[in-house]
């Protein structure tokens, strides 16, 4: 049974793709792989992955919950279904789990048939696409981790501050329309009017620098040096090396006079010996 927190992580993703999920149940790749005439690594290519038992339950319950609660937000619909899923008994979950297992087995068969028809170039293209997707997922996971660890937000530019302040009252009914309107308004501002936002942006840079310094020190204390900026890490290492070098120089300088005195004594002794040897 998945924890509620894990279930709700995908709420936003589910809300954006109801149509995709609803068609995914009926349009499964139960036949052999598609022909490769119109091969594409982004669409019409390999069989689609089967849905999990939980997602099958979500798709089944979504229209029922919406009908019962017509004014509820989509994200709240998902949360409500997640709570329902948690209360189901193993027997009630079994039909969804069995359907998911059957779909996974069929997916393996379809995928094998599909891969057998690929050319080496197509296989390489799919491998590259998979690599890019994995890199994107790692980046998303990394961002979520940094947010959970309280990493400070990057400083905003002068225009971003202006945009946040005037977005609600901006002209336009869509986000791109509002953005264009705000950009035009920004260009029409005088330098003295922009100076206010430029100063706020400079203040935000100082805030970010101070917060990042404190945050990175805290991450180092937690043993998460991997999250510290490379530039900062290199700077600290360089400072450490510089300090060690200075220490060595001081030690050498301290030893140098003693060596000089010893050398002078030996040279004086040799000078004294030289006349006596000459007399002989």
Automatic annotation (TrEMBL):
Primary localization class, coarse: mitochondrion
SUPFAM superfamilies given in the database record: HMG-box
Highest rank taxon of the organism: Eukaryota
Residues making up the signal peptide according to the UniProt record: 1-19
Annotated InterPro entries: HMG_box_dom (IPR009071), HMG_box_dom_sf (IPR036910), HMGB (IPR050342)
Its job: Binds to the mitochondrial light strand promoter and functions in mitochondrial transcription regulation. Component of the mitochondrial transcription initiation complex, composed at least of TFB2M, TFAM and POLRMT that is required for basal transcription of mitochondrial DNA. In this complex, TFAM recruits POLRMT to a specific promoter whereas TFB2M induces structural changes in POLRMT to enable promoter opening and trapping of the DNA non-template strand. Required for accurate and efficient promoter recognition by the mitochondrial RNA polymerase.
Protein name per UniProt: Transcription factor A, mitochondrial
Organism expressing this protein natively: Silurus meridionalis (Southern catfish)
